[in-house]
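As promised in the previous annual report, we have extended the structural survey to additional targets. Below is the entry for MSMEG_0569 family flavin-dependent oxidoreductase.
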Amino acid sequence: MSTHAEEHVSVVVVGGGQAGLSISYYLKQYGVDHVVLEKRTLTHTWREQRWDAFCLVTPNWQCALPDYPYRGSDPHGFMKKDEIIAWLDGFVRHVDAPVREGMAVTRVTRRAQGGFLVQTSAGTLSADQVVVASGGYHTPVVPRMAERLPASIVQIQSSEYRNPAVLPEGAVLVVGSGQSGAQIAEDLHLAGRKVVLAVGEAPRCARFYRGRDVVDWLADMKYYDMPVEEHPLREGVRDNTNHYVTGRDGGRDIDLRRFASEGMELYGVLEDLEDGALRFRPNLRASLDSADDTYNRINASIDKFIAQQGIEAPPGEPYRPVWEPQQERATLDLAASGIGSIVWCIGFRPDFSWIDLPVFNGRGYPGHVRGVTPHEGLYFLGLPWLHTWGSGRFSGVARDAAYLADRILTQARPDARAA
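The corresponding structure token record, generated without further manual editing, is:
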């Protein structure tokens, strides 16, 4: 089939979140002809997949999109959902990207004559270069055992949770204790709901330590500038679960042990449903201890930095458990528990099945170095630890976008500059 009538764009950017808009900002600065394709609306994830009480877990000063830093009056505070959306709305206006909303990309493949074919819900484009900026959190993870739960139990995924009132009466089982699970469990707990939390293996960190936000200390220690190839885990860090902490009410620790002392029921990892009973892995104590070990290890690294630099700071001390599980409880009778709803908070899987190019590993993750793939002209942006800790966040995506824009410019044809 002839492709001569297809629209040609020098660079196609897939995804209209902060990553796609950031690369668009730099491509506009360079005058490179490009288009941003967004299957829904710009920055929709922040509007449609966050609960009402959502707030940042990193301080506002880390919000630093291209030529668009946080300029509010509370740099060490934590923007709430509405404030984040308003800030992003300003960034959308700031970039004024050449965007086409409601245009889903269904396939990207190589053209025989060079470049790429980009098939969309509204026709096909050709491009010299493609930037995949659609993030890495696409398909909500819900285990198949969910199909065997009673129909009377309402089940939602973390991206669908809004507030405690949307769930029916009764206890709520929250499955997973990463950032979303821990914060949603807290949201329900503060509202007076009975919460049963299936604790995962996520680590935790302190909000404040020795007089400052831990993020401020880690920034001074250059942790956020560490490239992935220098991290002790190397690329393995990309598989790590984020530490749980919160910016709610000015910021504080999330201490699952304290919640337990206040009536939250903690169990280990949820494994199955058998004969009307939920079955849990007997690893609650180990998970809590491991999370606290990480908490104390991070604080110890701050202690060492303070000592080495001769910094005057208030004294610190290790965290000591305020509650211990008396025994490992491996089962919970579902009917007797009073559980009326379940919130699945066990993450998302990437889905790059629409990219018909051999650049992925066995786990479906693209092979790249700082976003540059082995296929000339194909790039990824906005993935967790693409280059540094901040690559998938407001704090580091600008650096990554600038790097890729420079690369794109060197690869662009002379006629790729917009008029």
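The chain has two domains: 7-138+350-416, 141-344. The longest helix spans residues 284-309. These points will be discussed at the next consortium meeting with the crystallography subgroup.
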